[in-house]
Write a structure and sequence with these properties.
By secondary structure, the chain is an alpha+beta fold. It is 39% helix and 24% strand. It has a single domain, classed as Pnp Oxidase, Chain A, CATH 2.30.110. The chain has a seven-stranded antiparallel beta sheet with strand order 2-1-5-6-7-4-3, with helices on both faces. The protein starts with a helix and ends in an 8-residue tail after the last helix. About 3% of the residues have low confidence.
């Protein structure tokens, strides 16, 4: 491949990656506002989205990443579509203890990478089907692409299985900013009920 074409592909991939960073920030905010179940109302369009809370391998701080997922046999499966440059991939590879926010609850779990096996490719396909528009933006139609083409297109993807362990409760979970809604409603109600002074001419 010519150097110019390679640089063009790399530039497109970087723009795609940066776009998803902004999209992920929006998704995380919506989860924190208590709208996680609403996000998942249209999986064919937006995809099935959960939030993984993981530990920074260098900082030791809690990090949160929205990802597409598929539920298969009681376990969650997700992929690091940008390969080894994804920070959350390295964090999960270093520390398998995670928390996940799902539309029906908040769980602690254990993550492990699925590197080989005859079921790996079908599982990758299921995650991509569950990703809604994201797979198509990446140029993959997971419902019709052949196994051979899918294997080539996702060669640098990392597939993770997350086994749910125990339900979580308390602070720091999904909906921690849900208090914004009643406060906003109160402020708007006061504004509507407060009589406006007529301006003197």
């Amino acid at each position: 491949m010519k150097e110019g074409a390679m640089k063009s592909i790399q530039s497109s991939e970087e723009k795609f990656r940066q776009g998803f960073k902004y999209f992920n920030k929006l998704m995380l905010l919506m989860w924190r506002l208590g709208l996680g179940s609403w996000i998942n109302l249209f999986p064919d369009v937006v995809g099935r989205i959960m939030v993984i809370t993981h530990t920074g391998r260098k900082s030791g701080l809690r990090r949160q990443t929205p990802v597409n997922y598929a539920m298969v046999g009681g376990d969650l499966f997700c992929v690091a579509g940008f390969g080894s440059i994804s920070d959350w991939y390295h964090n999960l590879a270093t520390n398998s203890e995670v928390e996940v926010w799902l539309p029906n609850g908040w769980w602690s779990g254990l993550a492990e990478e699925v590197k080989t096996g005859e079921l790996r490719l079908p599982l990758v396909r299921q995650v991509l089907v569950a990703s809604g528009f994201a797979a198509r933006v990446a140029g993959i139609n997971p419902r019709s692409i052949s196994d051979e083409a899918l294997a080539k297109a996702t060669a640098n993807y990392h597939l993770f299985r997350i086994r749910l362990v125990t339900p979580r409760t308390g602070s720091g979970g999904p909906g921690d900013l849900a208090w914004v809604w009643p406060l906003t409603t109160l402020i708007l109600s006061l504004m509507l009920l407060t009589p406006r002074r007529k301006m003197k001419r």
